[in-house]
Amino acid sequence: MLRRGSYTGIIAIISLLWAGCTTQKNTFLTRSYHNTTAHFNGYFWGNLSYEEGLQKLNDNHKEDYASILPVFVYADDKEAQTIYPEMDRAIKKATTMIEKHTITNKQKREIPDAVKYIKYCYLLLAKARIYKNEYLTGIEALDYAAKEYRKTGVKFEAIMWEARAYNQIGAVSKSEELIDLLKSSLQTPKNLLAGVYATTADYYMRTGQYNDVQKWLKKAVEAEKKKPVRARYYFILAQLSEEAGGKRTAFDLYSKVLKMHPPYDLEFEANIKRALLFMGDDKENQNIKNLLFKMLKPTRNIDNRDQIYYALAQISAKEHDTAQAITYLKKSVRSSTTNTRQKAISFLAIADIKFQRTEYVAAKKYYDSTLLSLPKNYLGRDSIVQKKQNLERLVKCLDKIALEDSVLRLSKMSPKDLDKYLDKVIEDQKNAETQKKKQDALAAENQAATAAAGSSASPGSSAPAINNGSWYFYNPSQIQMGTNEFIQKWGNRVLEDNWRRSKKLMESSQSTSGNEPTAATDSVKSKISNTKKDSLKNKYSKNNYLKNIPKTEGQITAANDSLIEAYYNAGNIYREYLRNNNRAATDFEELLVRYPDNKYKLSVYYQLYRIYSETGNSERMNYFKNILLTKYPNTEYAQLIANPEKYRQNLKANFEEMNRLYSATLESYLASKYLEVMHNCVLADSLYPKNPLTPKFAYLEAAATGYTQGLDAYKNALTKVIILYPTDSIKFLAQSTLDYLNKKHTTQASTDTTVKYSMDPDSLFYWVAIIDNKEANNMNGLKNTLSNTNSQTYSQDHLSMDNMLINPGQQMILMRQFKTAEAARNYYGFLNNDASLFKLFSPNSYHTFYISAKNFHIMFNHRKADEYEQFFKDKGL
């Protein structure tokens, strides 16, 4: 039995607990209870989960060290999903504490800082949402914390994180205001200064003001206490210095990174960057090389050996040991495991060396290999593609010269000499194939050798050669190229006639009969065996060789004409695209020696005149000048040499006429008179052939073709523009148009790529206007009108307006926030009824809708508004 006093004590304790639990009283007891509970029951565990998620992100995040690192690490869509459990737990803990332990007044508004850990819960909630890529809901929490706790340091931390979030979503005008506030305030806590400076640097990074990035990042380094963070800042500063040409400064900064004992990946990259710069004294440089050799040994670097060999190659190149550099680059390619970008860069380095040495055939092959692995977004990819295409055209010309020279020489042989020659060619080919089989068998015995042999298909590997390589069709390089292309398309197939059908038939027979051979299977195998023997027999038949040798006068003339074209085109490619005047002069001179009256002789005379004028060979220059002036005085070439000013005046008059025709053609296109456009393009080609505006006429003609003949014809016409005008800027417009058409077609063909939106209920909604960048001049007027509308009609809703980029071609005005879909729908309807709102905008240059917070995050992460707009219309929202 409890005594009466015990009952009284228990009742008193219960009363005290009840009084402490209430959130309606602001007493010492209630503050103590809620503060202790919010701290240890919620914030502590929520923050621990948040830190675990942050650590997981940092451990799994893969940096792109080929680009300048961002100031802060954020999760992409896939990475964000991996940390959802930790961040969701942090959000749940923070939200629960806010709901249960916030002390409020009679109006149900929070009494700021009555429970001090509530403000930390708001910060935790916001940061967790930001790392889930839910930026706007994170900004809402930060905005609340900055306003409600303005008398505490949390205000400045909230503003700093808000600026970071605005930076990340591209609303830099918003972040600029917040950053200016932080920098100008004398109340910003010292422990936040490093974060404020870094956020400022992040802002300037996103606006491309790299000098200011360096200025503020240096301040951040000085204020930052954590060594891993300081190491990251030093690395970014080093990258920026290297980009600006300050190699010595960059070298020293990378050295500072290493002194911070950074995470392994950053340490590795800093070592590689220092090696690539190779700016130290002799002793320091030797230490760098020794370190690189040491780094090759541990298995920890097995996936990074390609980078190490590449760095060693760059050092060898700076030491003018090109042979050793190529050796290291080939090792880099062979040791590449996961880093296809590095593999491409190593191939590119070899290609550039070969190109500089004017070894154009080998260079072309290495550029081919480069483009197989090079990322589509690699800076400078277009120039590599262009160089590869020019070399491809050159190689075709050289192959054509080799082919026609070979067959014409054979056509002049006596039957006896030809028969003897073919015996030798066939014997050499058999020996080459035997040697190749031995090499393949040897390579198969050793795994490392197999890996090396795998690169034999790549350019630069040795291939068995026949004596003097005079027979074009069995040139080893041509065999290798053909073999590679065949294997890529068909795989390793048996050498036989009808190999497509026979393989399928055998597979079909085996699939129907299980593992047991049948008569049908034996028949197929027998047929394949016999076919293979016949094929090998035919392969070495002299008739195969003889059928390619020209015999009639017409065939010989055709071969000579083909040679003329090849020499002329090769000379032009050497001069115009490869800037190799010596090779161009050699081919042009050879063309004149072999075919003095060829159809291109006047052009060749003038080209040689220009080449020798530029190279200072006055004797040869005057020789070709005199030919044109004395023998062909009325040609445009002679006029250009004799009276260049008059010739230019005539050209100017023609150009003005041509400009007028182009302007008229453009007007016809804008007026949708497509047949007139096509007529004018043909007229321009007739009146002003090869004029400077020819590519633009061609593009207009392609566009008109698309409107009159359909999508396929449009694509073909654009492809023609790209091929015919590879050096003109119109090529990039045609290429981007073609890429868009192909992408659009692919997207329409595959419904799996469509973003999925939800009709699930939500607690927040926004109004959105998507506006084309071309209407940027009208944006300020629109924002002012919206601001006036909000203050006059919707002042009780406390709406906030943001302006940000959603993709490279469109901006977004975001009005937030509405508590219900009905409120957002009413706002959307009210603005739609205001005819003056978008009166200055072009039709179809803007789109408006309202959207739930959940769907907004999906739309913004994918940077696509058109798909949501379609969803919006389909659902009748």
Structure description:
This protein is mostly helical. Helices cover 70% and strands 4% of the residues. The chain has 39 helices and 4 strands. It has a 4-stranded antiparallel beta sheet. Helix 31 packs parallel to helix 33. The radius of gyration is 37 Å and the shape is globular. The two termini are 68 Å apart. The model is unreliable at 7-18, 447-470, 501-536 and 745-752 (pLDDT under 50).
Spatial strand sequence of the major β-sheet:
2-3-1-4
Number of helices: 39
Helix content: over 70%
Can you give the mean pLDDT?
80
Beta fraction: under 5%
Instruction: Evaluate the radius of gyration.
Output: 37 Å
How far apart are the termini?
Answer: 68 Å
General form: globular
Number of distinct beta strands = 4
Which structural class is indicated by helix and strand composition?
mainly alpha
Set down the secondary structure blueprint.
Layout: H1 4-21, H2 28-60, H3 77-82, H4 84-101, H5 116-131, H6 135-148, H7 154-169, H8 172-184, H9 193-206, H10 210-223, H11 227-243, H12 247-259, H13 264-277, H14 282-295, H15 305-318, H16 322-335, H17 340-356, H18 360-373, H19 381-411, H20 415-444, H21 447-454, H22 476-490, H23 499-513, H24 519-539, H25 542-546, H26 553-577, H27 581-594, H28 601-615, H29 618-631, H30 636-642, H31 644-670, H32 674-687, H33 694-709, H34 711-724, H35 730-749, E1 765-772, H36 779-793, E2 800-807, E3 810-818, H37 821-832, E4 846-852, H38 853-862, H39 866-874
Antiparallel strand pairs: 1-3, 1-4, 2-3
Helix pairs in contact: 1-2, 2-4, 2-5, 4-5, 5-6, 5-7, 6-7, 7-8, 7-9, 8-9, 9-10, 10-11, 11-12, 12-13, 13-14, 13-15, 14-15, 15-16, 16-17, 17-18, 18-19, 19-26, 20-21, 23-24, 26-27, 27-28, 28-29, 30-31, 31-32, 31-33, 32-33, 33-34, 34-35
